Amino acid sequence: MRLHLMCEKYAYIVRIIERRLDMAQAQTERAYAVVSGFVDSLQEPRTPYISPSRLSKALGVKVANLAELTGVHRNTLRNPSSERLQGRMREMVKVISAAAELTGDLQKAIYWYRNEPIADYGHRTAAELVADGEIEAVLAYIRDLENGARG
User: What is the spatial distance between Cα 7 and Cα 116, in angstroms, rounded to a whole number?
Assistant: First the structure.
């Protein structure tokens, strides 16, 4: 009888673990869908480029302010296909996408990117760090958060 109760207990635990894994899988799939939709929404029509105007709209800034956020000269925005501009915008999208995958919410990720000071990096925001070319530091910070480090 005791063995039977132990088996039932373990079966119950296994069912709980399976449900949690299913929920985590569903959450991951939703996050990927959010990120994919975000990235698709940024494409300059009929080009392989990120649209500066679409990205600025998603971030809630004027196109003129995008130069500051990307760390490029404002005249560079006149040439949306500029590899330097495209590279910096890709970095921004990469960080926002990673944050959205972590939070499951694109708007929270964008808000965090623009506004949340990161204590470990002199209380600068992710946007400031990326503009200064420190994308790897921001991505490492997000990985630390994913792995349970302090926020």
Answer: 48
Range of the domain at 59: 2-146
Residue type, 46: R
DSSP three-state, residue 37: helix
The per-residue pLDDT for range 48-79, each reduced to its tens digit, is 999 999 999 999 999 889 988 888 888 888 89
Inter-residue contact 14 to 91 (CB < 8 Å) = no
pLDDT digits (tens, 9 = 90+) for 75-100: 888 898 999 999 999 999 999 999 99
> Is 61 inside any structural domain?
yes
Task: State phi, psi for 48 to the nearest 5 degrees.
Answer: -90, 20
Report the largest interatomic distance among the alpha carbons of the chain, rounded to a whole angstrom.
79
Could you tell me which of 101, 89, 97 has the C-alpha nearest to residue 38? Answer: 97
Whether 103 is in a domain gets the answer yes
Question: Is residue 151 situated within a structural domain?
Answer: no
List Cβ neighbours of 24 (8 Å cut-off, separation of 6 or more): none
Q: Is residue 111 part of a domain?
A: yes
| pTM (2 d.p.) | 0.76
CA 74 – CA 88 distance, rounded (Å): 13
